[in-house]
Amino acid sequence: MYRRNAVPDIGATRADAHNLTRTTDAIARVIARAQAEGGRYVVFVTGIPGAGKTLCGLNLVFGALRESGAAFLSGNVPLVTVLREALARDAAPQGGATFQAAERAARTALQNVHRFLEHHVVHPHEVPEARIIVFDEAQRAWDEAQATRDGQRRKSHLTMSEPAHTLEIMARHEGWAVIVALIGNGQEINTGEAGLAEWGRVIAASSSWRAVAARRSTTAADPAQRLAEGAPAWLSFDDDLDLQTPIRSLRTSRGTEWVDAVLSGDAPAARAIAEATPELPYYVTRDANAWRAALRARTRGLRRAGLVASAGARRLRAEGLGVQVPDIADWFLKRWPDIRSSEALETFATEYDCQGLELDVVGLAWGGDFLRHSGQWRARRFAGHQWQIVRGAEEQRYILNTYRVLLTRARYETIIWVPPGSATDDPFHDITRPAAEMDALADFLLASGARPLEALTKKPEPAPYLAQLL
């Protein structure tokens, strides 16, 4: 990826260098300040989905800060797994001892944040090797309740929130230290995620840490996602740290804006965006066979397709889609005809599998956990043999954000399959997936400007002079 001649699956990005260079330069300024002052800083990089926050962090660790031994930490296990495997395979495609050495090097640079914190809490006098760490999806760091809770397979050794432990561990360095916290807005999908407010609280309570962030970090509608109220003494602002130009989608930069309007339930606003953006890459079909055929037709050359669905879309199995990804590295990195590849279109990745990762063409299977009812979005969970309406605002937001993640995974097209559901006149009618609900969803997406799949697969009419020749 960083030799510029390999790992094309994760190295290619739209030619919007200024967007990332400006932010990288802002981070470099803070690091230089920390070194000159012997101080400790947390640098918050905010941005919309698909703006390149993770790429920015990886560019720091493997590019600008490579010689400093900076480390990239993420609680996103699939992301770490895929990146480690991709870098190791690229360095040693033939395997063997060279691959094992490359894998060890990748593990040093790319670490699971939960294990990093647990290790240094268990070893309270051990100073981290890196003076600079990049904390990916830092808004998803665990609050104290989640961090200290024992899991089914592990006993927690943490005694504080993850942001609090991160500051304590990095403060073990004599002199300067920098934490680069990458913040994804509107991507909270789990309970126990502390949000920006917890980072602000622990920095404010510390006498040795300061922070630099864009002003937008203090203006979020959700208090949990506001770093601070106003402009406290420990916080300084640099708007170059806010990434607002989408680089994931190669068709248009307005895809995120369209997704926001759709998930807000504002069909007229979404349609206006679509009408003003002929290249908007969202399509709808009700036919699973046509869905898969269109995905295969779009994977020319090195382009990769794959299926995604919500982990809560439990009744998709009745529609013939019920197997999640068994090995995420193989799913993202193997190529057809290897049946473990995403290109086999047999298994699907959930929001947990694919957050922070991307595909060229995405087939999104829409589930019954997030549908339209009386002109509003309704979030549901499946329990036992039936759907239950989600009443809690926090869980509703997680389910909405699940679909935000799934709708923003594609670099080219997203093809949405809305299952036909079960008709009431069917003698084996399934009340957990009524056709009327799925019809209402498909109608809403089309009214919002998503295009019928036929618009993507239809061959263009030949130009008049070509028609005469033909």
Which secondary structure elements does this structure contain, and how are they paired or packed?
Elements: H1 8-11, H2 17-37, E1 40-47, H3 53-64, E2 71-74, H4 77-91, H5 96-109, E3 110-112, H6 113-122, E4 132-135, H7 144-147, H8 162-170, E5 177-184, H9 196-205, E6 209-213, E7 235-237, E8 242-243, H10 255-263, H11 267-276, E9 282-285, H12 288-297, E10 305-309, H13 328-333, E11 348-349, H14 351-354, E12 361-365, E13 370-373, E14 376-383, E15 386-389, H15 393-407, E16 414-417, H16 435-447, E17 451-452, H17 454-457, H18 464-469
Parallel strand pairs: 1-5, 1-6, 1-8, 2-3, 2-4, 4-5, 6-7, 9-16, 9-17, 10-11, 10-12, 12-16
Antiparallel strand pairs: 13-14, 14-15
